[in-house]
Specification:
Elements lengths: L17 H30 L8 H12 L2 H11 L3 H26 L1 H20 L10 H21 E2 L3 E2 L5 E2 L11 H6 L2 E2 L4 H26 L4 H8 L50 E6 L5 E4 H5 L4 E8 L10 E10 H8 L7 E6 L4 E5 H5 L5 E6 L2 E2 L9 E3 L13 E7 L22 E6 L14 E5 L14
Parallel strand pairs: 5-14
Antiparallel strand pairs: 1-4, 2-3, 5-6, 7-8, 8-11, 9-10, 9-14, 11-12, 11-13, 15-16
Helix pairs in contact: 1-4, 1-6, 1-8, 2-5, 4-5, 5-6
């Protein structure tokens, strides 16, 4: 005769429901997995044995950026502006929380299925790590150790906090060493699901909170260690802007002195930043080099010391993001200091038939720039300074490209490491296969800064002021017509 003890009053007071227990176990597992991986990734980057992007969070985020369709990129820029990367981090965190909870709930029902979910998520992260530029097998070590730590916690906690379904013997009697809390289910339903063990809610929640906190600390410490003071920041602090033969001066009256109008020269810290780098590369100038390859007579490798020995020049150039909306702020003037790219290409000797220069960043980003823009008399520069100071890391330290007259997506490569002389028929920059124009000339535009949209103005004389740009031609005046 079959006998089963059943509680019909739900989970006893002080214990978690199975779904709640699963969510706690899943969050703890996800936190420990990610925290251990991020901590080890930061240590690896600090020690110098990581060649690519060992951080699973950064690798997944960067892989997502690479595969995001143009409409999603436009939406992110228009919605979040220069905070688009922070929005991506928040999104990644929310997705991780949801997937971790789902993994834990699955593990409460079936430990094997929960482990399978963990391994699947680890495999996706591993593929992202290996997809990053300069990736090697050693970049997987932090993630593998993190997954092992998560597997240990998941299996241990489900064994401690979860009571498995009772097993039915051949005679039909129930074989169980403990009483099944069935939450009002029938005896058959009681045997079909796992139940919560007698461990109290306080113990489960306390253990889960401790694991999540430990994971968060691992992530934070890993970030601090990876981004701590290193050779790149020391070199930047010691950098002195090379002398130039002729300095650029701001035209008299360029700054109108009207509150709310964008300054004629935008300060470095306020200059807009739009790029595909989820994590700002930290490049040590002592190890930096620029290779000139492709359709050239002589391949050249230029190091930092050699570049600084070249005759530098200043140029006032407006940079513009193609995603800048009407009235947007993704543009600005700066005085850039650098060596003309045309001089470097002259040394290399461009072969007939070339019509494009493919510039590559240390993070793998590429831009296809018309060869003409690199070799004519415009001030296309290998830039080492902005507004009389070393480039900020987020603006390309130690070296970036600035090409007047072209949108940034086809020209303004930061942390530049290679110039490949080639053709548009043979190569494409990062954004071209994603539907963007291969040429990207900047269009003449203007913007009213004051009064701003929605401002209430008093009757009488009202100052209307803003900025306008037309590269290669300049602006002599702007007509403003009322409605």
């Amino acid at each position: 005769m079959e006998t089963t003890q059943v509680r019909a009053q739900g989970t006893p007071s002080g214990r978690l429901e199975p779904a709640g227990l699963g969510a706690v176990v899943g969050l703890a597992t996800g936190a420990v997995t990610v925290g251990a991986a991020e901590l080890l990734a930061g240590l690896g980057q600090r020690a110098g044995w990581a060649s690519g992007t060992p951080s699973p969070i950064d690798a997944v985020g960067a892989a997502f950026i690479d595969r995001a369709p143009p409409w999603l990129k436009d939406f992110a820029v228009s919605t979040f502006g220069t905070n688009d990367k922070m929005a991506l981090y928040v999104g990644i965190t929310l997705v991780l929380v949801l997937l971790s909870c789902a993994m834990g709930v699955t593990a409460v029902r079936s430990r094997r299925a929960g482990v399978a979910v963990l391994l699947l998520l680890g495999t996706v992260a591993a593929a992202a790590v290996l997809s990053r530029p300069h990736a090697s097998s050693t970049d997987l070590v932090p993630l593998l150790i993190g997954v092992v730590a998560g597997w240990w916690l998941l299996t241990r906690w489900t064994g401690r906090f979860v009571q498995r379904p009772a097993r039915t013997g051949s005679s039909g009697s129930t074989v169980a060493s403990r009483e099944v809390a069935a939450q009002g289910r029938s005896p058959r339903e009681a045997r079909s699901v796992s139940s919560v063990s007698s461990v109290s809610r306080r113990v489960v929640l306390g253990s889960g909170l401790a694991a999540v906190a430990a994971g968060a600390v691992g992530v934070l410490v890993g970030r601090v260690v990876a981004g701590s003071v290193r050779a790149a920041s020391v070199a930047r602090d010691a950098f002195r802007v090379p002398p130039v033969a002729r300095r650029v001066t701001v035209p008299a009256g360029a700054d109108l002195g009207i509150r709310g109008v964008t300054p004629f020269i935008v300060p470095n810290a306020e200059f807009y930043r739009i790029d595909t780098a989820l994590v700002v590369p930290q490049v040590d100038p002592a190890t930096w080099s620029l290779r000139v390859t492709g359709m050239v007579e002589r391949e050249i490798t230029l190091d930092w010391a050699t570049l600084l020995s070249k005759p530098m020049q200043e140029a006032m150039v407006t940079l513009m993001c193609v995603s800048n909306e009407v009235g947007g702020t993704l543009n600005g003037n700066a005085v850039w200091t650098g060596w003309p790219v045309r001089e470097l290409l002259k040394e290399a000797g461009v072969r007939p038939g070339a019509d494009m220069v493919l510039s590559t960043s240390v993070d793998g980003f590429t831009a296809g720039t018309p060869l003409e823009a690199m070799t004519d008399d415009r001030s296309t520069l290998l830039v080492v300074a902005q507004n009389g100071e070393a480039l900020l890391p987020e603006h390309g330290f130690p070296v970036r490209l600035v090409v007047p007259g072209l949108y940034g997506y086809v020209s303004a490569t930061k942390w530049v490491s290679e110039l490949k002389v080639t053709t548009f028929a043979d190569d494409m920059g990062y954004w071209t296969p994603r539907g963007w124009s291969a040429l990207g000339p900047v269009k003449t535009q203007s913007r009213i800064d004051v009064p701003r949209d929605g401002d209430t103005v008093a009757a009488g004389t009202v100052a209307v002021a803003g900025v306008a740009w037309a590269q290669h031609r300049g602006i002599s005046g702007v007509q403003v017509r009322g409605a």
